Amino acid sequence: xxxxxxxxxxxxxxxxxxxxxxxxxxxxxxxxxxxxxxxxxxxxxxxxxxxxxxxxxxxxxxxxxxxxxxxxxxxxxxxxxxxxxxxxxxxxxxxxxxxxxxxxxxxxxxxxxxxxxxxxxxxxxxxxxxxxxxxxxxxxxxxxxxxxxxxxxxxxxxxxxxxxxxxxxxxxxxxxxxxxxxxxxxxxxxxxxxxxxxxxxxxxxxxxxxxxxxxxxxxxxxxxxxxxxxxxxxxxxxxxxxxxxxxxx
Length: 249
Ligand code: ADP
Prior knowledge:
alpha/beta
């Protein structure tokens, strides 16, 4: 049954954009924005045209992560906003539009992206209105759900999976963040929180498991410097973990 017949808004594609994926999480602070940015940069490193839309209205972090400042210009022809660009990736963020009264999600979608192979949307955490609006109005190729392996995060991650299933957004899979610790001395790998919580949860929810991102200070430090690990240390094990996930989405 079509959305129109059910009285729901009709989903639309974004002009010039071939694929759109969302990166979501049940809880804040689990590494969602870090994943969104590094996935976008990883796909760009495969010679694709990529954009990232920061829809995390409560804590827009794409400007800092992408080392971007300033106000987007308005495109003459259609009044759409022009994304800013760094590391070869186009970016639009609510963070560029502080002080703007227009309904935030709506403005976020009125962007002149040009031709893109992939647009990554960094969702707000949880299952609120913004996530629902985007899921119901934009044709999403799918959503990646990121979680840490702790029970509390996993409970919320399950809610996220269920919400996206309800609005017919394909679940591309789950990513486990900050569980794996690689010893800097001997390279020994341990899951410091014991079990593989996200792997178990993805089985239980019947979704794919896309991979593990290690808990590593360099990921955090390079993010803070505005040089994400996928560009700053593109050959490192950590960067490879993000690229590995990027190959699957
Ligand atoms: P969210 O978008 O889920 O709120 P962020 O991506 O902003 O989370 O990450 C929260 C904090 O954790 C940031 O300081 C970030 O640099 C750090 N972080 C994210 N992933 C990792 C990781 N794998 N290892 C170390 N620190 C990480």
